[in-house]
Amino acid sequence: MADETDKKAPRRKSRSRSLSDEERKLWRAVVKDAKPLARKRSIHAAEAALPAEMLSSAATPPAPQPKRMPASVVPPPSPAPRRAPEPPPLTGLERRTSQRLARGQMEVEATLDLHGHSQAEAHGALLGFLSRVRARGLRCVLVITGKGASPYARHTLHGAEFYEVPERQGVLRSAVPRWLNEADFRAHVSGFQPAHPKHGGGGAFYIWLRKKR
Q1: What would the mean pLDDT of 38-56 be, rounded to a whole number?
Q2: What pLDDT score does 123 carry?
Q3: Contact 171, 150 (CB under 8 A)
Q4: What is the per-residue pLDDT for 163?
């Protein structure tokens, strides 16, 4: 049999013990002159342990992101300007009114004499005259143009084709009927016809105005 003394003795578990008073005094004497590490040194030491990539990204602040501009708002297309309605065509005069004018039985409420005017002057003067008298509520006006050199001018009183005779006519006598058919004049005029001899005959026109609005 093996000697029992050859058997290994079981290990004793180490037990923690508290320091004695003398040991505590000794420890305080050792650490009395010790100083804590500065915060800056600890920060540098921590940075030294970081990889170079992390250090470079930490040292360089991130570039500011560009602000996103709002999408441009395209204004809606402006509406097309409204065109003034086209004045109605000349309607002519009522039969009774035309007959009374032909007989010289109607009173002329205003008169415009275009003698001595150029065509440009006469055009503007006639349009302004008709606009003013219509604003006053007048209906029947007389416009004197002159008879010109045609032998028919002294005798032609009525008829839609009186100004189409082949002989030479007065310039304004030919121009006024054309002007009265223009849109600017039709806004004021409803019809016209040659005047009675007592008002100038073939050298003048009765002009019938539209009612004031």
Answers
A1: 55
A2: 97
A3: no
A4: 46
**Which residue's entry shows tokens 């100038």?**
200
The answer to whether the CB of 192 falls within 8 A of the CB of 212 is no
- Predicted TM-score (pTM) of this structure: 0.53
Q: Give dist(CA 189, CA 140) in Å, integer.
A: 10
Amino acid at 204: A
In the chain the domains, ranked by start, together with CATH numbers, are 95-208 (3.30.1370.110)
3-class SS of residue 180:
helix
Q: Which two tokens stand for residue 113?
A: 């004499």
DSSP per-residue string spanning 102-143? HTT-S---EEEE-TT--HHHHHHHHHHHHHHHHHTT--EEEE
pLDDT computed for residue 73 by the predictor? 63
Question: Are 202 and 177 in contact, with CB atoms under 8 Å apart?
Answer: no
Instruction: Please say if the pLDDT value at position 5 is more than 70.
Output: no
Is pLDDT above 90 for 111? yes
- Here the tokens at position 184 are 């600017």
Alpha carbon distance 184, 7 (integer Å): 140
